[in-house]
Specification:
Shape: globular
Radius of gyration: 16 Å
Distance between the termini: 33 Å
Number of strands: 4
Length: 141
């Protein structure tokens, strides 16, 4: 039992740590485009198409939008955008509700170009979303 948990956890940790974050010069040189004033609608449209059961999903916006980059991993490239921290709760396939989970959406030119911790994301997504929410100014209690 312990071995089945340890192997995926170690693999996810290695995958998450394989890429270097961008330098300050690289971050400063990025054109994030215009700040999305309609970011809540952009997020709601995205979740309606992506979440397992969007009719039961609850989204609470907590911080942002702010200019931020999505941490690169071995499985995804570096992405920049206007990040929005939200918390979501949706029903699982068996109909039971889980608690609220942090999620971060990266918006560029009115489109979501990346997320951290959407349903189906690996366990590392939670850690990235929590860190990004703190960076955007949300204070976890």
């Amino acid at each position: 039992m312990r071995k089945s948990f340890t192997v995926p956890f170690l693999a996810a940790t290695l995958i998450a740590g394989c890429k270097e974050p961008p330098t300050k010069q690289e971050v400063a040189a990025v054109d994030y485009g215009p700040r999305p004033e309609n970011y809540e609608q952009i997020v709601r449209d995205y979740t309606a198409a992506k979440f397992p059961d969007p009719r039961t999903a609850t989204i609470e916006f907590k911080a942002g939008p702010g200019q931020l980059y999505q941490q690169p991993t071995a499985l995804r490239p570096l992405k920049y955008g206007w990040a929005v921290c939200a918390f979501y709760k949706d029903s699982f396939t068996v109909g039971a509700y889980g608690g609220f989970r942090p999620i971060v959406f990266f918006i560029r030119d009115g489109v979501i170009v990346g997320t951290n911790n959407e349903p189906g994301d690996d366990g590392i997504g939670y850690r990235f979303a929590e860190t990004d929410c703190k960076t955007l100014g949300y204070n976890f209690l």
